[in-house]
Design a protein that fits this description.
This protein is α/β, with parallel strands linked by helices. The chain is 29% helix and 23% strand. Strands 1, 2, 6, 7 and 9 form a five-stranded antiparallel β-sheet that branches. The chain has a two-stranded parallel sheet with strand order 3-8. The radius of gyration is 18 Å and the shape is globular.
């Protein structure tokens, strides 16, 4: 969700202040990005804050909170139904991120807590763009953060209000703890915090 609104704004401000910099932006799911962070391949990661909880190697600056929700194509049969419950999800088909991803584990836990077997997805993919395209073109369901839909994005995909299958997520900037950041990374850290306030990304 940060790829669409907050991060472009922060990078635009950074480029305006230091036009001769070189910066590389990578997308993906949280677990893969955090592995790259710990290996020193990236300076900062924007991800779910809980991924850094209890990890002495990581430092986190909380920025936003949002909701995770089930998504479907606008013409999906369930998109017209009201009062959906997690039990209604028993026989639907899913495209989901891999089991190692934190949000997938949280998703599975909600089914377990409701006394249901977590779904075996028809398709697994760690490409966010692919997941959206497949949801758009099929009756497969998935889940994502609500802020992705702000500003009219993905008008042909809708969120489903499913009791027991929506949850809150806090996101922030994560870096390696106890390590001095470069001046560029430090300034981007500050700008991300400014953008979160200015754009009211919560």
């Amino acid at each position: 969700s940060w790829m669409r609104r907050g991060l472009p704004e922060a990078v635009a401000r950074l480029v305006a202040q230091a036009p001769r910099i070189e910066i590389s932006v990578l997308g993906g799911f949280d677990a893969n990005l955090l592995r790259q962070l710990k290996r020193g391949e990236v300076d900062l990661v924007i991800a779910a804050c809980e991924l850094a909880n209890g990890d002495d190697e990581l430092e986190v600056l909380p920025l936003t909170h949002d909701r995770q929700a089930v998504i479907a194509r606008r013409g999906h049969p369930l998109a017209r139904r009201q009062g959906l419950k997690i039990a209604d999800m028993k026989d639907v088909a899913w495209v989901l991120p891999s089991r190692e991803m934190a949000q997938r584990r949280r998703f599975n836990t909600l089914f377990t807590e409701a006394g249901m077997q977590p779904p075996d997805p028809t398709v697994e993919s760690n490409s966010i763009a692919f997941v959206f395209e497949l949801v758009r073109r099929s009756d497969l369901l998935s889940f994502t953060t609500s802020t992705i839909f702000q500003g009219g994005a993905h008008d042909d995909i809708v969120t489903l209000e499913v009791e027991g299958l929506n949850w809150e997520r806090h996101a922030g900037v994560i870096c390696r703890a106890g390590e001095e950041r470069s001046p560029l990374a430090e300034r981007l850290w500050q700008l991300l915090a400014e953008v979160a306030r200015d754009l009211d990304l919560n």
